[in-house]
Amino acid sequence: QKEVEQDPGPLSVPEGAIVSLNCTYSNSAFQYFMWYRQYSRKGPELLMYTYSSGNKEDGRFTAQVDKSSKYISLFIRDSQPSDSATYLCAMRETTQGGSEKLVFGKGTKLTVNP
Amino acid sequence: NAGVTQTPKFQVLKTGQSMTLQCAQDMNHEYMSWYRQDPGMGLRLIHYSVGAGITDQGEVPNGYNVSRSTTEDFPLRLLSAAPSQTSVYFCASSYLPSGNTIYFGEGSWLTVV
After folding, report:
1. A44 and A36 in contact (C-beta within 8 Å)?
2. Which of A88, A108, A111, B102 minimizes the number of CB atoms within 10 Å of its CB?
3. How far apart are CA A89 and CA A46, in angstroms?
4. pLDDT tens, position by position, B50-99
């Protein structure tokens, strides 16, 4: 079982739809959970991060973490064509030796159609 | 406000050639890293550095060398290019301990023929 699983899509929705993007993970030591957005031919940029279970909202974006189920989600409300991008989840743990381990999902490609 | 700058953006190499991908950051970040991104494989860590003079291997280090002589620069060397190294390469940096914000460069598209 891979440490982080993410459905690659592609996902195509009409403008204004609510989008749900998800990742599952197997490593219970992950402490920080992040979502990166990557536009075509660009580098990933941090969209949101959360620590521990719960919800975090930022404008039209809501990140949700359920550590008991090892499941994280990103919701996009009122989706816009400008949201069309690949969304990567990422998770981080600090190992016993003090080093940090960051693992990315493979990304979900989202297209929002006008 | 340059952030993380990578050069070149595009490169075609012949098998066996060597080259260096340059990466520079102007945010005084201690931590720098190189990833490659391939279809269906996601981002995979090649090498990373926690400060000048300190480097370590990531998940897929074979065929690549790095050095960190200054805080700002972290070049990635391909010693003898192979078609399997055709990929998009991203340099990234962050503060230590690595905050949740990792800043990525724009990417370098490398084709090995």
Report:
1. yes
2. A111
3. 10
4. 899 999 999 999 999 999 999 999 999 999 999 999 999 999 998 876 66
The percentage of residues in chain B with a pLDDT greater than 90, rounded to a whole number, is 83
| DSSP assigned state of B1 | -
Best to test chain A binding among B43, B47, B56 (most A CBs inside 10 Å): B43
Contact A90, A79 (CB under 8 A): no
- Which residue of B97, B100, B105 is in closest CB contact with A34? B100
Chain-wide mean pLDDT for chain A?
91
Residue A106 carries which DSSP code? -
- In angstroms, the CA B40 to CA A92 distance is 21
Sort out which chain A residues have CB atoms less than 8 A from B92's CB and list them: 43
pLDDT at A97 over 70: no
A-B C-beta contacts closer than 8 Å = 40
User: Above 80 in pLDDT, residue A82?
Assistant: yes
Following DSSP, what letter does each residue of A15-83 receive, concatenated? TT--EEEEEEE--TT--EEEEEEE-TTS--EEEEEEESSEEEEETTEEEEEETTTTEEEEEESS--GGG
**Phi, psi of B86, rounded to the nearest 5 degrees:** -65, 120
Residue A42 gets the label, from left (phi > 0), alpha (psi -120 to 50) or beta, of beta
Residue A100 has its nearest CB partner, among B43, B98, B104, at B98
